[in-house]
Amino acid sequence: MAPFQRILLKLSGEVLAGSASFGIDADRVISLAREVADVAAAGVQIGIVVGGGNIFRGVAAAARKMDRVTGDHMGMLATVINSLALSDALEQIGTPTRVMSAIEMHQVAEPYIRRRAIRHLEKGRIAIFAAGTSNPYFSTDTAATLRALEIKADVIAKGTRVDGVYDKDPLKFPDAVRYPEISYLEVLSRGLGVMDATSVAMCRDNRLPIIVFNLNMTGNIMRMSMGEAVGTVIH
Question: Which of 15, 136, 160, 200 is the most exposed place for a label (fewest CB within 10 A)?
Fold first, then answer.
């Protein structure tokens, strides 16, 4: 593969927690920011969507007794906290960013406007898309797919704890087999659960490839961005 010009990087909130079970590990956020900054310096335009699991896990027990819509809104606000943390780490090392929120909060982030987001990317800023789609019942995977399609990204790169898509959970089954590439249809029909079904179907309908790769291996974001075979390609 040739190097990508514009990517949408989807990070789980848990990545920002480092080795802790929840919260934000400042050292992990800074090391992640350095990797992203290197890729941006190489000329790749980057949009980022971060999940909120690391923040939301702390209140998940309480949320189970809440209305689903309220719980989802709390999850969206958790993604704003993570987006601000990542933005701050990137800005501290001299990489310009813009946090754009689907829920308007003018003192904290810009409202998400598609054309403005594309302009930020063209000017070399990293656009961090927060608050999901602003709608309940949609995951951050779906939000990432929507933003990737809107900004015309070449690929969605999903950074996880494992190095690709397996036929079963490699963290539980040592005999799990990794696919170097796989079709959208196979992911959906086998229920492989890499991303939720809505986002995979959206990618299939719009021919947007997905790369699933191990985020915990230093340098993988750069290798993936430069078109090296890292992880699994879903296409």
Answer: 136
163 residue type, one letter? D
- Strand residue runs (E) in 51-125: 97-101, 110-111
**What's the structural domain count of the chain?**
1
Contact 117, 128 (CB under 8 A): no
- CA 153 to CA 9: how far, in whole Å? 10
User: What is the C-alpha to C-alpha distance for residues 172 and 185, in angstroms, rounded to an integer?
Assistant: 24
Q: Could you report the per-residue pLDDT of 37-49, keeping only the tens digit for each?
A: 999 999 999 999 9
To the nearest whole number, what is the mean pLDDT of the chain?
Answer: 94
Alpha-carbon gap, residue 178 to 141, rounded angstroms: 21
pLDDT in tens, 54-78: 998 767 767 778 898 998 999 999 9
186 touches 132 (CB < 8 A): no
Domain that holds residue 210: 6-234
Question: Can you give the CATH number for the domain in which 92 is found?
Answer: 3.40.1160.10
Q: DSSP assignment, residue 174?
A: T
Residue 1 lies inside a defined structural domain of this protein: no
233: β partners? 181, 211
Residue 83 lies in a domain: yes
Q: Please, are residues 215 and 15 in contact by the beta-carbon 8 Å criterion? A: yes
